[in-house]
Design brief:
The protein has 15 helices and 11 strands. By secondary structure, it is α/β, with parallel strands linked by helices.
Length: 401
Amino acid sequence: MVLALAALISAYHEAGEAGLLRAVLPIAGRTTIERQARLAASAGATRIVILVERMPAELSAAIERLRRDHVPVQIAREAADAADAIDAADRVLLIGDGAIVDDSQLRRLAAGEGHAVLTVADGAYGELYERIDGQSRWGGAAAIDGAMLRATVAMLRDWDLQSTLLRRALQGGARHLAADAPVAILDRTSDAVALESRILANALETRGGWIDYLLGPLERVVAGLLIGTSASPVAVGAGGAALTSLGAGAFAMGWNWTGLVAMLLATPLEGIALRLSRARLQGDARRSWWRALLPALAGGGLAALGLSLAVPFGWGMTLLAFTTIAFLLALEIEMRGQEIGGRWLLAEPKGMIWLMLPFAGFGTWQAGLAALFTYAAGSFFWAQRQAHRAPHQKGTSGTQD
């Protein structure tokens, strides 16, 4: 019986650049070992053992960042420590020193039975990828069990643990699992260039509603500039929450243009933070505290604007603002777990902030508030119709939406 999925990552080979370990080579703004550990965690590993021989400052800092983000890593200074940290019944993902294998490949290895080795074609990969036979080389990852790890450590002597485990798995009849996505083993900083391009292309992909497509080019450029810096998704997202809060406060004071500008400046920060999070595999930023706050802060800004406009235009403005918020809340409830045709066109706070801009430019704030109400109400009734239509209609209308 398999108890759990663990991962063993080697982090002791010297890189092709003097004084560096492969584990600390930079990739997408962080170190290789951080990406390896996060990929293992994403694949389901509940215990990640990193085998090290020395702890330079860069490696120590990387491990501390992982622990701060609650990635379940622990350090083994010797092979025996690694064996003690993993139960004999555990399934173990063996991740090679400097190997970047995406989580889908790791899940394939984890899901199978018995020992398995990820392979790549011999002709397309160089000497960094250990030769398995005349046609294939090692792709940088394998799946074994804790019992093999313990047995190997017991007879290891002066041999390299990573290579010995690979050889023993192959001699024991491990399945060859051909890689169906790109893999890489990094030995120099230059090795990461092509890999980073693929990582950024996926992470910077635009997802969401119509406003995300309009702001997407700006968000991609800024996220690309920040990827190699120390800026964190939390810091960027918190900046967006702070600007939204500032905008709501300005509306409450009657400084409508100040409030609108602050909220407009905040809108791309959410997308930038989400892209940074995806590129660095830093958790799911969609569930971050700052993102949970954004709708409430935006709603507070809308309510404050309604109260501000009530002075020159009457209490109906306040009623209009609060009714708009109610429709937005109802819309969110209707869309949960539902397939809604045309979802990307429906109302959401970030897009509504930009919709107010042309009305503000012409000085017709009250007309802008009425337009937001109409948009929110129309979106709700559309989503309600889509969510509650007959099941056979849902199956046939996908091509029409």
